[in-house]
Structure prediction request, 141 residues.
Amino acid sequence: MIQQLYPQTNHSFRYELNKDMHLAAAHFIDHQSAGVCQEMHGHTYFINMTIAGNDLDEIGFLVDFKQLKSLIHSRFDHTVMNNHPEFKGVFPTTERIAEKIWGIVQAHLDTLAHSPRCLQVFVRETPTSYVVYRPLAEDFR
Ligand SMILES: [Zn+2]
Prediction:
């Protein structure tokens, strides 16, 4: 079980859902300024996503927890981040990983009639380092 306090995102939606997951993945940052991170290495990423909305689906879900896990965990667990099409042309830094996770999750949410929004993605790369990605208003379609 993952238990951790996360930074809060301010909003006035009726419902807020948070999904934690963790996954093992390798990456390398192919840039001379990246130091030792230029070499392939692995992390256990701890991820939290915050989803909010005013309405629920016919089951009473804001979004299905299992669906969120399958969108992200099934895609990235035990893979090399650099090999994913999302990271073609960009380095899989923690910042970019958080941003891409947001894009994948929000693309799924956009297919739901009740229009939930992913307001925040938290990605912890090491015990001492994490990134929070929060989309701008214009990032929503
Ligand atoms: Zn790394």
In short: Helices lie at 65-76, 94-109. Residues 94-109 form the longest helix (16 residues). The radius of gyration is 15 Å. The first strand starts at residue 15 and ends at 27.
